[in-house]
Amino acid sequence: MHFDDRLATVLRIRAASERAAKTQFRQLIDLLGERPQAGDKALKAASYLRLIALGEMISVADRAKMVGESGWRFRNPELVKWFGEAHPQIAAAALYRAQLTAAEWEEIIPKLPIRARGFLRHRKDLPVEAERILDRLGVSDRALPEPEPFELIDEISPPEPEAETPEPAGEPAVEVGPAEPTPRPAPGKDDVRALVDRIETFRKTRSGEAARTEAPRLPLGEAVDEEAKEPLGHFLFAADSEGRVNWAEDRIASMVVGIDLAALGSDTIAAAIQRRQPLDASRVTLRGATRIEGDWIVDAAPRFTRGEGRFFGYVGRFRRVVSDEADRREAEADRLRQLLHELRTPVNAMQGYAEIIQQQMIGPVPHEYRSLAATIAGDSAHILAGFDELDRLAKLEVGALDLESGEADFAAIVRKQVSQLQTVLSPRVARFDAQLGEGRAPLALAQSEAEMLCWRLLATIAGAVAAGETVALQLVTEGDQVELAASLPASLREAENIFAVETRPAGGALSAGIFGAGFSLRLARAEARVAGGELVRVGDRLVLSLPLLTAQDTTFSPENASG
């Protein structure tokens, strides 16, 4: 006989800090948010009292943020009603996340405060019964009303630059049209928008704002341009007579305007600016936003006025140093490795504590808890294995990791692993139709590296094979290369990009890894490239090609040099 003691377990823990209070708050609303079930009423009442106590330790904004997080199961009408009587921010977040049946909405809506009922007007997924109750209670404005038609009384005319009369201090007078208003038909949405634009243009022209808004400014609140996501290779700029950038392209202006070229570069650049000489392939280093950080080459020509010949600055172009792209990718990979290091720490701690409980190192533990601890330890190991794969891929793609050298017979490895996988595929009436031959295919890789690469490819394909499906395998040695070609299973054949992370076949006895088949194949491709080969898709086949170990390589290998 099993009973649910999760609420009691959570309530036994005392939240001594704000962080612990937030954790317990999340745990309680997660447990109370499930469908109402039979249980200890006193325990549930204690849970609500604990929520009230925790609310004194957590600010309203933080509680509203936690309640509004996705993933909660607000299916309990009691909890929804309880939150509906809370602070308006919390009530709005809870009613937006609530997932009740039509009958439950009919029962709970009349019990909600009037303010809380108003929050429901923004829900577009309420059942028809709930909308009927809201209409009956007078909460019928679930959308903004359409603007009522109106007539244009006066039309604002643009100013005439020839005769502009002086105006007194304060707001500028608005010039109007004829004294007698002319009735016009009710405008549409486009006409209203055009009128608003004309009013704004008139106001800016009269107040001198039009010229100011054309100056570069920080992109606060504007939509992010799709071009901003692409790597920046070059941009145009202009600088004043002292070498300070005062104009740049719109896409980069906010990041570079104000930069002093003389302070960035060497004494040569400063001397060239003082002598009004051109800047030819001058190297500078920019610091700041990610898109501009790094080494650049500056090419600029001096500008002079036509009449007096007075020097008033430079105009030119920044272009990125070619090798900086590789440095940027390596920096990104290094940041990923640092992030993985930070993530490993708590996972290692969870795994260690779980193993302590499972092995009863600090005292007797019930078998049920030992079973849970063993599951946690296994999940932790699975997560750590995924972190290792991410770290390996990041290092391989930036060239920071080389595969261990040695000598391995790739053909023998393929035959052995295909034989092992056949036993797994047989219960599903699936199989490999393999034509592997009897020859050898020596590679300049260590045995473990070659086995890992082969298994990553074959196990991923085998894991995607459906019941009754046959995958054709062919191993061919031509010249100085060995090629392993495999037909794609139906689940992978439909993928537009087979190396994408989203490519996730159905789970089975064989796992493609924590990140799916697409990631595993991408990792196999990175390993193949580091080994001097390639993994590509050709039609409905995956082809792995690797360079063979020649007799010359064997003769002069480090292992044979000592002999």
From TrEMBL:
Domain Signal transduction histidine kinase dimerisation/phosphoacceptor: 331-399
Region ranges (Disordered): 149-193
Bias (Low complexity) ranges: 166-179
Keyword annotations from UniProtKB, A to Z: Kinase, Transferase
Keyword Iron-sulfur recorded: no
One MF annotation (Gene Ontology) recorded for this entry: kinase activity
Keyword Methyltransferase tagged: no
EC id: 2.7.13.3
Catalytic activity: ATP + protein L-histidine = ADP + protein N-phospho-L-histidine
Protein name according to UniProt: histidine kinase
